[in-house]
Amino acid sequence: DAGVTQSPTHLIKTRGQQVTLRCSPKSGHDTVSWYQQALGQGPQFIFQYYEEEERQRGNFPDRFSGHQFPNYSSELNVNALLLGDSALYLCASSLALAAGRYGYTFGSGTRLTVV
Amino acid sequence: AQKITQTQPGMFVQEKEAVTLDCTYDTSDQSYGLFWYKQPSSGEMIFLIYQGSYDEQNATEGRYSLNFQKARKSANLVISASQLGDSAMYFCAMRENYGGSQGNLIFGKGTKLSVKP
To answer: Quick one: which of A26, A30, A28, A39 has its CA closest to A88?
Structure first.
């Protein structure tokens, strides 16, 4: 049973460019959340998608957008990249109505470097 | 606002000894969940243990136990019989509620644990 799959694993982009990160959730999960983890920090919530709609959003600018497809996979798009966007981007999948500990399965992340 | 505080940036422990990683939290919700995750250098967040705010017993999962003191708003992780493979970053996190279903996680800054042979 595959866990959460993220691609690519590493990415180098130039300031001002746009980037798309991809996430395939764990089998049976219907909700995808994205987190940004800067070096030496804990992950910060970006947004969550459920039923192909953004359901919750953290304190991130509109340059960060996303999409969820009918098969529950998701993309994170970042426009007009800044040096400060360099981070590990983690995808977590879950089942919307699940309670307790069986909530979140994380992928290994995409490490984005903006130069 | 909800917040997680981990005051130990780094900890050292001798192999086979026990270690406690501290976590305090702040929330006005009555219903919440507390998690501990391990993050090795590969980057993946590995679930270790969960404590619900209404759980009367402290959670245990193998060598991991959670010392939950609700009045003090603390949720410390205890790792017994440390192993070299336990060396990693450890994050405490709290789940916000969102209409009864899964809310997002709020993480602390983490503690880097190093196990010495």
So the answer is: A39
Question: What is the tens place of the pLDDT at every residue in A30-63?
Answer: 999 999 999 999 999 999 999 999 998 999 999 9
B72: left (phi over 0), alpha (psi -120 to 50) or beta: alpha
Low-confidence ranges of chain B (pLDDT < 70): 98-102
pLDDT for A60: 97
b (16+ CB within 10 A) / e for B70-86: eeeebbbbbbeebeeeb
Spans in chain A with pLDDT lower than 50: none
The CA-atom distances, in angstroms, between B99 and each of A35, A53, A72, A99 are 21, 16, 21, 12
Interface residues from chain A to B (CB-CB < 8 Å): 31, 33, 35, 40-45, 48, 55-56, 58, 88, 90, 92, 94-98, 100-101, 103-109, 111
Both tokens of residue B54? 């209404």
Are A101 and B110 inside 8 Å of each other by CB? no
Backbone dihedral angles phi then psi of residue A83, each to the nearest 5 degrees: -55, -35
Distance CA B19, CA A85 (A): 35
Calculate ∠ Cα B25-B86-A5, nearest 5°: 80
Distance from CA of B15 to the nearest CA of A (A): 25
Of A31, A41, A58, the CB nearest to B102: A31
